[in-house]
């Protein structure tokens, strides 16, 4: 659990000299539109696994090479952002945590929120390669196909973080639907106020006293929801990385209009 996993633009502005900022947008956006001064660019598609294993972790060796190339150290405090309400940056944060990086945060409100209040630059960031080491995390939220299958027969809350139409076409038996974007305020681009989040989640039965199992299609959208639940202090949150991609490949049961 990491209840300060989400940080504000104001926090980043005050601590920029103490953190390493990671921009996960495409290189053309980083170079052409601008970025947080001093940020390094690690585009989203570079820390995803190869085609055929879509959405899964990139592998410890590849992750080490990426972080080393970006000049990031094992003990650096990282703050990641994108320009898509944080969903891509959240996947970076979760990946870093799963490879044992202990100090990693999501910028609330993404690049647009930063850009409204603070300076940006198109200047290239000077990077000196680092010596990065992957570590075992203190604990891991990852669960596999068999664990999710077993969870269907328990009191666990299975949460589908995809859009309503996707859920309607086919979802895990008994899953509740929570589009990850429901947690985001469209105007501020950041998270909704805490009380509003807690009420929204409670209405779906997604409460801190229950075991929560998250899935989507390829582990991107659940990354954002996972980060939010951590910020709210949830302690029993499982992350089904294989998600619906693996579930359907392995013949897991589904409910919905396309399977009736």
TrEMBL record:
Alphabetical UniProt keywords: Repeat, Transferase
Keyword Transcription regulation: no
EC numbers: 2.8.1.-
Classification via InterPro entries: Rhodanese-like_dom, Rhodanese-like_dom_sf, Thiosulfate_sulfurtransferase, Thiosulphate_STrfase_CS
MF terms (GO), sorted A to Z: transferase activity
Pfam families cross-referenced by the UniProt entry: Rhodanese
Record-annotated Rhodanese domain positions: 15-123, 152-256
Keyword Repeat set for record: yes
PROSITE patterns assigned: RHODANESE_1 (PS00380), RHODANESE_3 (PS50206)
CDD domains: TST_Repeat_1
Family matches, as PANTHER family: THIOSULFATE SULFURTRANSFERASE (PTHR43855:SF1)
Record-given protein name: Sulfurtransferase
């Amino acid at each position: 659990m990491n209840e300060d996993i989400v940080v504000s633009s104001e926090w980043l502005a005050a601590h920029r000299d103490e953190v390493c900022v990671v921009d996960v947008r495409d290189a053309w956006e980083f170079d052409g539109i601008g970025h947080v001064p001093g940020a390094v660019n690690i585009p989203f598609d570079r820390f995803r696994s190869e085609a055929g294993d879509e959405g899964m972790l990139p592998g410890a060796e590849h992750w080490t090479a990426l972080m080393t190339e970006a000049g990031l150290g094992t003990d650096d405090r990282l703050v990641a952002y994108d320009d898509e309400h944080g969903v891509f940056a959240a996947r970076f944060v979760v990946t870093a945590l799963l490879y044992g990086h202990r100090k990693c945060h999501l910028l609330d409100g993404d690049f647009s929120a930063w850009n409204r209040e603070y300076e940006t630059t198109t200047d290239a960031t000077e990077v000196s390669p680092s010596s990065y080491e992957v570590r075992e995390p203190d604990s891991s939220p990852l669960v596999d196909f068999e664990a999710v299958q077993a969870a269907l027969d328990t009191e666990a809350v299975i949460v589908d973080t995809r859009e309503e139409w996707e859920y309607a076409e086919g979802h895990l038996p008994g899953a509740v639907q929570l589009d990850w974007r429901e947690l985001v305020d469209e105007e501020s681009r950041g998270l909704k106020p805490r009380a509003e989040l807690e009420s929204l989640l409670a209405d779906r039965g997604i409460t801190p006293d229950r075991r929560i199992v998250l899935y989507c299609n390829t582990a991107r959208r659940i990354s954002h929801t996972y980060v939010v639940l951590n910020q709210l202090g949830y302690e029993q949150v499982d992350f089904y990385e294989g998600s619906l991609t693996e579930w359907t490949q392995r013949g897991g049961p589904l409910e919905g209009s396309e399977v009736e």
